[in-house]
Amino acid sequence: MGKIEVIEFHEGLKGTWDNFVERSNNGTIFHLQSFLNYHPRGKFNFHHLMFYENSKIVALLPGGIVDDNIFWSPVGASYGSLVTEDIPFEKALQLVDTMMNYFDRNGFKEIFLIPPPIIYNKKITQHIEYAMLYRRFDFELHYISHAIHLRFEKDFLSYFDKTARKTIRKILREEKLEIRESNDYTTFNEILIKNKAKHNAKPTHSLEDMLRLSQLVPNKVRLNMVYYEEKPIAGSWLFICNPKVVLCFYNMLLYEYEHLKPVYLIMYETVRWALENGFEWVDIGVSQDTKSPDPMTPALSLIQFKERFNSRGILRSTYHYKFRD
Known about the structure:
The model has no long low-confidence stretch (mean pLDDT 94). This protein has helices at 14-23, 33-36, 89-105, 127-134, 162-174, 185-198, 207-216, 262-276, 300-307, and strands at 4-8, 49-53, 56-61, 64-66, 70-73, 110-113, 138-149, 177-181, 221-228, 231-240, 245-253, 281-286, 311-322. By secondary structure, it is of the alpha+beta class.
């Protein structure tokens, strides 16, 4: 194996970076510079790295510096860590060693890495994760996400539980609700803010963020809105993360219309559309109790709701390494 060199990313390498992410084994929308560029310049102290062997890219590491020489990957996104092609274990171990040597040599104190869950790999492998554990990374946190495996054919509704099947069939039969793709981010943002306020929370994205992302990565985001008598009452913002996975980033409704069960229609349409377009998984996102002092506390009622749609729990883990003083 040749020696691996590390260089810092600059804007002139944006096309090279994004092309590698697109052809990689585990890259997602969150690793793209096109995506990360929605943040205002200067908001984060980005410190993206590129790994070369014999003048060929073998890995990327998006991230940034926080606090006092602590590196986080991702910064300003959901998933980060090393992006690679389908590589053998020995190469994975060499990459992890090269990464650790770089941070140690440059005076970093700690590393935090959040790779995408295993379902995002085009070819299932955990070489990088095992290499990190072998080099004595530990875990900061584990979150539980839920995802629907689209292994069924067109009759996907039969895999949902009895309540979900009955509710969705009633909605489709009565035709009181309609769901369709939309560009009405202003209305969706109003629903989003009201929904989050009910839970004493604020959205991750502002209206300006959503509009900017819809311009920067137009083929990787999709907004579906639910209408009752032409009034928008619910919506779902989807991220087309890579060729395998669609992520429901926000599923939101106006609670005064909760009795109409619009989220059931959202889940039905999301799975139908994902199947029709050849995806393998629908990721419904993390299921944590945000009001609990323990950030790992599961939101049991939310998990029970997600399981109605034949979803299963997958781990979203944060890998951590602290250098000795």
